[in-house]
């Protein structure tokens, strides 16, 4: 499995167009002030999407599945490696996000906050959970125009239903936030906290719950992909 | 070493039906048949890329679905084209395949690349068809595979590269511990090297026979229509020509006469396919 991730990593580095990379970085630098609110929130989602779909695109474009699966590789390993690629890409792009917005803070752009990380993790895991079983079932090429739409739609839903903003700005509690609130109250009683900042505890529990739920959905998606791909004929 | 038993597979409109054959260690089997007969599907089934609906495939006494890594580790494959990432270099391919096989010998691969006069820094996308096939051949021969599976390895190659590849193949199997399954529709390539011939048409097994038996028993009878009708031979198909007819038959009695001649494999395929069309 590790060898397959190394193969994907090698491919990504070889297929990067440095011209476009520099252009992209220049554009970010140029518009970072204007879009300072949104960029830290979407950069890891976009980067994870690009890395993962690029890896599927490379396989589809070159029909390399037959070659790779004729080597001593199992179909299961292909699935695991792609899901692991999502985690690695997300983790690295979050670090990059942090580094970029820590550097740009010097020129007055806002710094990355916990909420950005939460939105990035939830949106990336959910969107990849939705598109990867489809890719394993139907191949990348068939629905390649649908995948960015799904990712954008899920990203938008996650952003719009961001309970933390709603709680802080409007005092509104979503169902999950209500559950987090109740869990927070329970913890307060069980552990007899000296100070009870309900907003803070609710937000922390909410973050843990959303990350946990996203991880469960991601694992279910991986299980679905495994079932689909194991029975798929590589023609 | 290789045993296929009653294989069945439905892929859309195409069917593989009741295919069985065996091949022992050290022998070469040619898989022949017209385009679309199911050769590539069968090869993909051998490699575990396509699962059989029914039947069993045993390679090295193991089932590929149960011992996938062991089985694939002992197979060297060559396809009709190198479907690999064009923006990677030959040395990247070597790294990727080298990490995949447990007994990959880097030196053997390098020696082949040098022998084939291929630059290891060349991009896969810039390789000619012949060079790409040679890379696949180097890959197949660099990890001490017990079985070589070649799917149309000479298709689209010029005669020089074809001869070069076939002579390397012959050199490799002369040691006798490797088995080879080679699918081709260029039957002249395998006429002198194959020990067994398995002929499939429309997904069905026509025959799987010893090459010597084919050379000994298959005959074409050239005679007039009346002579053919009077003959008590069981013809596979009769080809009508302007002044005479030609018919393929199995000469069990082994009687040689001036009206019969030994057909090429191509002719055998032709007569069987035509016979089935009627």
Task: Describe the structure in your own words.
By secondary structure, chain A is mainly alpha-helical. Chain A is built from ten helices and no strands. The two termini of chain A are 22 Å apart. In chain A, 35% of the residues are buried. The model of chain A has no long low-confidence stretch (mean pLDDT 85). Chain B has helices spanning 39-46, 68-73, 90-100, 106-115, 129-141, 159-173, 211-217, 225-230, 265-277, and strands at 2-11, 14-23, 28-32, 54-59, 62-63, 75-78, 147-151, 179-184, 196-201, 204-210, 218-223, 235-240, 245-250, 260-261. In chain B, the strands form three sheets. A six-stranded mixed β-sheet of chain B has the order 6-7-8-3-9-10, sandwiched between helices. Chain B is globular, with a radius of gyration of 21 Å. The mean pLDDT of chain B is 89. The A-B interface holds A 3, 6-7, 10-11, 14-15, 58, 62-64, 66-67, 69-74, 231, 233-235 and B 11, 44, 47-51, 68-69, 72-73, 75, 77, 79, 82-88, 92, 95-97, 99-102.
Please describe the topology of this protein.
The complex is a heterodimer of chains A (235) and B (278).
Chain A: H1 2-15, H2 18-31, H3 39-62, H4 65-70, H5 75-103, H6 114-138, H7 146-160, H8 163-170, H9 175-191, H10 198-230
Helix pairs in contact in A: 1-5, 3-5, 3-6, 5-6, 5-10, 6-7, 6-10, 9-10
Chain B: E1 2-11, E2 14-23, E3 28-32, H1 39-46, E4 54-59, E5 62-63, H2 68-73, E6 75-78, H3 90-100, H4 106-115, H5 129-141, E7 147-151, H6 159-173, E8 179-184, E9 196-201, E10 204-210, H7 211-217, E11 218-223, H8 225-230, E12 235-240, E13 245-250, E14 260-261, H9 265-277
Parallel strand pairs in B: 3-8, 3-9, 6-7, 7-8
Antiparallel strand pairs in B: 1-2, 1-4, 4-5, 9-10, 11-13, 11-14, 12-13
């Amino acid at each position: 499995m590790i060898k397959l991730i190394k193969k994907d990593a090698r491919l990504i580095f070889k297929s990067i167009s440095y011209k476009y990379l520099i252009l992209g970085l220049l554009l970010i630098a140029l518009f970072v002030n204007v879009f300072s609110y949104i960029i830290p929130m979407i950069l890891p989602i976009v980067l994870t999407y690009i890395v993962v779909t690029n890896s599927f695109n490379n396989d589809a474009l070159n029909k390399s599945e037959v070659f790779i699966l004729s080597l001593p590789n199992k179909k299961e390993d292909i699935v695991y490696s792609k899901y692991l690629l999502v985690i690695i890409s997300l983790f690295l792009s979050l670090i990059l996000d942090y580094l970029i917005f820590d550097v740009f803070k010097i020129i007055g752009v806002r710094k990355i906050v916990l909420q950005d990380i939460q939105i990035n993790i939830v949106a990336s895991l959910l969107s990849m959970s939705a598109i990867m079983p489809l890719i394993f079932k139907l191949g990348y090429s068939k629905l390649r125009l649908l995948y960015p739409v799904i990712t954008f739609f899920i990203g938008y839903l996650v952003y719009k239903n961001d309970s933390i903003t709603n709680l802080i700005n409007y005092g509104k509690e979503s169902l999950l936030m209500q559950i987090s609130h109740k869990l927070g109250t329970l913890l307060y009683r069980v552990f007899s906290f000296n100070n009870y900042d309900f907003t803070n505890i609710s937000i922390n529990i909410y973050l843990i719950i959303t990350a946990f739920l996203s991880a469960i959905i991601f694992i279910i998606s991986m299980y679905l992909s495994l079932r689909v791909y194991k029975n798929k004929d590589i023609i | 070493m290789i045993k296929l038993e009653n294989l069945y597979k439905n892929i859309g409109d195409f069917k593989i039906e009741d295919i069985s054959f065996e091949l022992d260690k050290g022998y070469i089997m040619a898989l022949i048949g017209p385009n679309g007969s199911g050769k590539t599907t069968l090869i993909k089934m051998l490699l575990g890329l396509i699962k059989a609906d029914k039947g069993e495939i045993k390679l090295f006494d193991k089932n590929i679905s149960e011992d996938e890594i062991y089985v694939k580790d002992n197979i060297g494959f060559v396809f009709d084209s190198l479907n690999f990432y064009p923006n990677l270099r030959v040395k990247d391919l070597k790294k990727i395949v080298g990490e995949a096989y447990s007994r990959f010998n880097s030196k053997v691969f390098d020696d082949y690349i040098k022998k084939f006069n291929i630059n290891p820094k060349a991009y896969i996308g810039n390789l000619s068809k012949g060079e790409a096939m040679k890379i696949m051949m180097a890959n197949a021969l660099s990890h001490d595979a017990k079985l070589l599976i070649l799917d149309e390895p000479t298709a689209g190659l010029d005669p020089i590269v074809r001869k070069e590849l076939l002579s390397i193949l012959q050199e490799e199997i002369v040691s006798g511990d490797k088995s080879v399954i080679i699918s081709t529709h260029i039957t002249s390539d395998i006429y002198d090297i194959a020990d067994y011939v398995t002929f499939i048409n429309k997904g069905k097994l026509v025959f799987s026979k010893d090459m010597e038996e084919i050379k000994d028993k298959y005959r074409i009878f050239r005679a007039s229509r009346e002579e053919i009708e009077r003959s008590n031979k069981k013809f596979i198909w009769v080809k009508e020509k302007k002044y005479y007819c030609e018919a393929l038959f199995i000469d069990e009695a082994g009687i040689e006469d001036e009206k019969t001649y030994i057909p090429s494999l191509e002719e055998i395929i032709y007569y069987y396919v035509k016979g089935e069309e009627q």
